[in-house]
Amino acid sequence: MKPIKVGLLGIGTVGGGTYRVLLRNQQEIIRRAGRGIEICIVAARDLERARSLVSETVQVTSDPFEVVNNPDVEIVVEVIGGTTLAKDLVLRAIANGKHVVTANKALLAEHGNEIFSAAQKNGVMVAFEGAVAVSIPIIKALREGLSGNRIEWVAGIINGTTNFILSEMRDKGLGFDEVLAKAQALGYAEADPSFDIEGFDAAHKATILASVAFGIPIQYRKDHVEGITRLAATDISYAFQMGYRIKLLGIAKKTSLGVELRVHPTLIPARRLLANVEGSMNGIMVKSDAAGITMYYGAGAGAEQTGSAVIADLVDVTRLHTADAAQRVPHLAFQPDAMSDLPILPMSQVVTSYYLRLRVADQAGVLAKVTGILAEADISIDAVLQREADEIDGDSASQTDLIILTHDCQEARMDAAVARMQALPTVLQNIVRIRKEELA
Fold it and tell me: Rounded to whole angstroms, how far apart are CA atoms 149 and 319?
């Protein structure tokens, strides 16, 4: 059988990795796909560099629309990133009856509903394993491996940059700015790291995971997003002393009222496997009714790691290229006419537990006032730690830290309680609040 023809949009880090792995493992890929997968045209800004990376038989162009309009191309691989030109190219490819493989999480998180609707209308596939936790086949696991289950929640470390920073802060006791500079020097963080450290990258991925897990439309704008820029080494240390580690988690949880969709720093018990995902690695836990808790671990970035995911999608699309569109796995795991209208819950309705740190005057009765406010808000306390005054920097003779772990409560109740505690004259600084998940 003749090889299937592929057009590649972009041959930078990810595109180059995809091309290398596809070329190197072509014989294994043919054995799996049943036919060859051949890149016949590449769009790139730097034509000279692109020609140095591909064989002489591959056409190189500076016009990406030449790729999506090429009549010989049957699958378009989009790895240029961004949400403007990429969207136009993907929609044009779909309109031209071409399947699409993309690793662009931002594109799908912001325009996925439009893209999947267009693909369904035109009878083509959009595959996106490389968009989330690249070396981990989590999309396939949710869409196919766990298709007999009701997914209850998904929680993941899905941004390697922030995980590296938090690991270094904990292990070496360094401040955020110092570790960020190290991450930039090592190439883990961009010169402008805001997309990672403010949580937006993880939010794009969490949005996609929620849609595949629960069969809901993509709703990125309703995702609650907090980054790690305000985390202090002090809180990472206190959490560790109490048997927890702090990770930036993307969480999607199905409740009777709707779906919790949130990204924020989270305390996790140190005994959980997810708490021990270190450095730039990714890890994702899934809780389902039949399979129970399953965990997926691997690299969350890298040229060939992402290329591996892109090629897995290419193999899937090649296998199903001639299949009846109705027999293919739906883009978001559930049949388009069976998607759920469960709402995304506002944070005020989210139920979780909390870590609180209060810098207070070292006076009698302070703890009683604080715990009294929590009791009046019907918030149960799990543990309390009080640091001795001589262990605190600054005016140690008159200040102390109260660290409180709570049981589950609704966020709205915690908001009200924190406001009351903050108003106490003996509370000397802004209260630090970090959510806690047992993941059990």
Answer: 25
CATH of domain 348-436: 3.30.70.260
Asked whether the beta carbons of 316 and 328 are under 8 A apart, the reply is no
Q: Contact 114/120 with Cβ under 8 angstroms?
A: no
Give tens-digit pLDDT for 296-344. 999 998 999 999 999 999 999 999 887 788 789 999 999 999 999 999 9
Q: How far is CA 60 from CA 23, 42, 336, in A?
A: 17, 5, 37
The whole-angstrom separation of Cα 207 and Cα 228 is: 19
319 residue type, one letter = R
Residue 396 confidence (pLDDT): 56
Q: Is the dihedral of CA 209, 215, 216, 218 positive or negative?
A: positive
> Does 253 participate in catalysis according to the annotation?
no
Return the CATH number of the domain spanning residue range 138-299: 3.30.360.10
Annotation: CATH topology of 4-134+303-338: Rossmann fold (3.40.50)
Phi, psi values for residue 281, rounded to 5°: -75, 160
- Residue pair 157/196 in contact (Cβ under 8 Å)? The answer is no
β strands within 255-380, DSSP E = 259-269, 281-288, 292-299, 351-361
Q: Are 261 and 210 in contact (CB under 8 A)?
A: yes
Tokens of 400: 């102390």
The 10s digit of each residue's pLDDT in 153-210 is 999 999 999 999 999 999 998 899 999 999 999 888 888 999 999 999 999 999 999 9
What mean pLDDT, rounded, does the chain reach? 95
pLDDT band with cut points at 50, 70 and 90 for residue 395: low
- What does the block give as tokens for 304? 């060939």
User: CB–CB of 54/291 below 8 Å?
Assistant: no
Distance CA 399, CA 416 (A): 24
Angle at CA of residue 143, ends 20 and 341, nearest 5°: 130
Give the per-residue pLDDT at 177: 93
Going from N- to C-terminal start, the domains of the chain cover 4-134+303-338, 138-299, 348-436
pLDDT for residue 392 is more than 60: no
As a whole number of angstroms, the distance between CA 8 and CA 246 comes to 39
Q: Is the pLDDT of residue 275 over 60?
A: yes
Q: Given this model, what pLDDT does residue 35 score?
A: 95
Q: Which of 5, 87, 98, 205 is catalytic?
A: 205
Query: Can you tell me whether residue 282 is helix, strand or coil?
Result: strand
pTM: 0.95
DSSP code per residue over 51-71: HHHS-TTSEEES-HHHHHT-T
CA atoms within 13 A on the CB side of 113: 11
